[in-house]
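The protein record quoted for completeness.
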Amino acid sequence: MDFEAARIKMVDNQIRTTDVTSHAVLAAFLAVPREDFVPVAKKPLAYIDTDIELSVEGVSGKRYLMEPSPLAKLLQLASISKQDKVLEVGAGTGYASAVLSMLASSVVALESEPALAQEATATLNRLGYSNVSVVTGDLEKAHAAAAPYNAIFVHGSVETVPQALLAQLSDGGRLVAVVGAGNASRARLFLNENGRISERPAFNTAVKPLPGFRLAREFVF
């Protein structure tokens, strides 16, 4: 299979056509070999326009590599520059980490599943993405050891964005997440302005959920 041709088609047919106009984002998606971040059996499906399940031994629950179009739109929304330090929450096998590495100064790729973190580390190192650091930990607590971050990207939909993540934004920092479930979810941009967090909706989208990040359930009497 000609993966390079498939990558160009992905960018032209799935990403450019959904209002992604950032030259830096488009160039990053053209450069990163998506096929290297999916399970071997699914390499022929690497560039289809859907989420891809990451079947990695030792991982409990389902995890996904986000569909190219919403991923690109979310990264464009984050307005990442070469001066930014970025935290990715839920790095999986490291594909978005690699894309982010081409947009940012440095990337901290946080993953809760050791098997996924190990695979991400091996692939990113093999491909030479030297400005990405993969760490393991609780996704809902983010990674305070390297905070603050100029941008935080949450790789999957969530019911709520914990205060722990917002607290790790630098002044002027942005957090991008898809909040909600299924077709009712929406991309949102959170901004830290002088210690005050503001939020604005961006666009409707449906992506696979990230484990955790559940709203507290209230008892009804």
